[in-house]
Design a protein that fits this description.
By secondary structure, the protein is mainly alpha-helical. It has one domain: Chondroitin AC/alginate lyase (Glycosyltransferase), CATH 1.50.10.100. It contains 17 helices and 2 strands. The chain has a two-stranded antiparallel sheet. A hairpin with a 4-residue loop joins strand 1 and strand 2. The N terminus is likely disordered. This is Alginate lyase. Belongs to the polysaccharide lyase 5 family. It is an enzyme of class 4 (lyase). It comes from Pseudomonas plecoglossicida.
Length: 367
């Protein structure tokens, strides 16, 4: 029996949906329990824009690296423009929900929460993003969107302010949709050959982990942990990921891009009694330290990848959002801690929004 069949046997699904007395409910890291910062009356200047039209079509999108060689590192401007246009509604949903949830957690205005629920509810009712007619870019969009939405949802679901208490029916509808998306994501990204497992698989595992906790699905949690271990065991003794080294001039950028989902998964696993920090001789720590060293001096990445590194993405502070969960796992000190403080606060819609508020809530008062 394959791993996929084991995960989705009816008996396991029944246990996941109705709860087993033997296992405690899944929980997020402690920072997700933070309440609303300040309850404000009225709607202020907030205006709820109409939700983007639910995307129910085939998930067949052009790649921004269309026409590139095996390295998939040369941007195709025309295909990127076509990709952005065809996925605009999905990205608008991701960013919009993340922004509204963030605003609500700061201001507590009911209209902000109502709008986020309206957007998500309209897509859930349409069973959006569920097409099984997809290419690689299409299934990538599905898992990115799921990670963004479930990551934001966790802030509402677990907040001590209990914002979803008065919206149970809508919340149940949305969470069932998240679960369906996560099940499809597992099908999309399972049983790949090792040479095909790279940052995309890590991001898929993060989206499934976030959804597992949001919906209390132990089967999804276990799959995300399994995929994390595959990723951690790809890190070699020098801290390189062989399948990201293949990206030539973008090798360092893609090592950095692999870190947010891996760090988030390890953090969520730790919150549920599964300590992944030492997997493959502390692979996640080694990977992070290697990237930080590479940003200071990319010569090692140039030597390994065979080309001078493109540092464009690495000049953007938000690209280092992984430092929040990573430093919570490995207790950063010295230059690394100083670098993190200089770049805070970190906000990444693909990780559900303001990760600094989750992992280092006192940071803003320090600055």
């Amino acid at each position: 029996m394959t791993m996929l069949k084991r995960i989705f046997r009816p008996a396991l699904l029944t246990l996941a949906l109705f709860g087993g007395a033997a296992q405690a409910a899944l929980v997020p890291p402690q920072g997700y329990y933070e309440g609303i910062e300040k309850l404000k009356t009225g709607d202020g200047n907030f205006h709820c824009e109409p939700a983007p039209k639910p995307y129910t079509g085939a998930l067949q999108f052009r790649s921004k690296y269309e026409g590139s060689d095996k390295a998939r590192a040369t941007l195709n401007v025309a295909s990127e423009k076509a990709f952005r246009k065809s996925t605009e509604g999905i990205t608008t949903l991701e960013k919009g929900v993340s922004k509204m949830v963030g605003q609500y957690m700061r201001d507590g205005r009911p209209a902000q929460l109502d709008c986020a629920l309206t957007w998500l509810g309209s897509w859930a009712r349409a069973d959006a993003l569920m097409s099984t007619d997809y290419n690689h870019t299409g299934k990538s969009m599905r898992k990115w969107a799921l990670g963004s939405m479930s990551g934001s949802w966790l802030r509402l679901k677990f907040s001590n302010s209990q914002p979803l208490a008065a919206h149970r029916e809508e919340a149940e509808l949305i969470e069932k949709w998240f679960a369906r998306l996560a099940e499809q994501t597992v099908r999309d990204w399972s049983d790949l050959p090792l040479e095909k497992i790279n940052n995309h698989s890590y991001w898929a595992a993060w989206s499934v982990m976030a959804t597992a906790v949001a919906t209390d699905r132990r089967d999804l949690f276990d799959w995300a942990v399994k995929e994390y271990k595959v990723g951690a065991n790809q890190v070699d003794e020098q801290g390189f990921l062989p399948n990201e080294i293949k990206r030539k001039q973008r090798a360092l950028a893609y090592h950095n891009y692999a870190l947010p989902p891996l760090a988030m998964i390890a953090s969520f696993a730790q919150a549920n009694g599964v300590d992944l920090r030492s997997e493959n001789n502390f692979a996640l720590q080694r990977l992070g330290e290697g990237v930080l060293a590479g940003v200071r001096d990319p010569s090692q990445f140039k030597a390994r990848a065979g080309e001078k590194q493109d540092m464009t993405d690495l000049k953007i502070d938000s690209k280092y959002s992984w430092l929040e969960p990573w430093c919570a796992l490995y207790h950063c000190v010295g230059d690394t801690l100083e670098r993190k403080h200089d770049m805070q606060p970190f906000n990444s819609f693909r990780l559900g929004g303001d990760v600094t508020r989750v992992y280092d809530p006192s940071a803003k008062s320090k600055k």
